[in-house]
Amino acid sequence: MPQNPALPGTAGHATLAPWRKGLAQLSPAYFGMVMATGIVSLAAHMQGLVLLARVLFGLNIGLYAGLWCLYLLRLALYPRHFLADLIDHLRAPGFFTTVAATNVLGAQAIVIGQDTAAAVVLWFVAVALWVMLTYAIFAAFTIKPRKPTLDRGINGGWLLAVVATQSVAVLGALVAARIGQPYKLEVNFFALSMWLWGGMLYIWMMSLIFYRYTFFAFLPGDLSPPYWINMGAMAISTLAGSLLIVNAPDAPFLLSLQPFLKGFTVFYWATGTWWIPMLLVLAVWRYGFQRFALRYDPLYWGAVFPLGMYAASTHEMRLAMGFDFLALVPQVFLGVALVAWLGAFTGAMHSAFATLRGTPHPSKP
Q1: pLDDT per residue over 93-105, tens digit each?
Q2: How many domains does the chain divide into?
């Protein structure tokens, strides 16, 4: 979910009001705030913290509506910047946060708000966004004449395409569990197809990202928080697989695939778990040994979301497959995710006020 502070044309906006300069440079990945808030809310609901879950749900509705207003305003006032982001190798994948955020809010609506109709509407919106963004962004990457080298053009933020795909599968599975025929089978099949496609997309992208990791020079600034999506993409794949397992009794084709579903769900969870120590080691190297400044950046929401998703997906997998020995894991990671969310939210508020005042913002997330 990279953010480039030097967008084309922003130098000429030095005399603009602070909020207009902030709008011109708004990160395409800012819907990560909705993703993070939503999954922490859902994980809290799973652990019986109903009041906290509802408060975060209400907050998330406001955040979602507010961010859409900002994005549409940016498109209207700064269309060149907006469209330039859509073909930028580092910034464009951030737009996939709109898909994931829409699906996460839909999951909150159906699980916490018990509003299936709203969830269905949000799911259709998310599917439409997924189709438009997937083929617009990757077609642009394919045909653009000038392209960056691998080490300058890819990072963990690319895996937001996987998260977006799997989020469609998650909300689709939740919707399928609550509707009747004749659409229950079709929605389950579509969710299964998206789950499989998301897994294939992860393999493609992760191969390139891991190659970039190990064969190109790596600076502290290159280790942006979206690298946590390496784990988050696997966590949401685990959640989608677990929900499909739960839906299997109502869909004969899922029942016949149950051994495959269970095997790959554990595979996704194990892969995501492998990433956690690796990411912690790299974080210690970045902030401890390299003394990289720890200041608020909207990209930090890309680290909060995977923590909450790991808590939610582990809880759901435990229920779907009877892994009671994992009961403590989602509780611990929910606590970590809540601390991370509070830090990022505090930093976001300070940053917003600093932008409106036109002063530098030194706060830490």
Answers
A1: 999 999 999 999 9
A2: 1
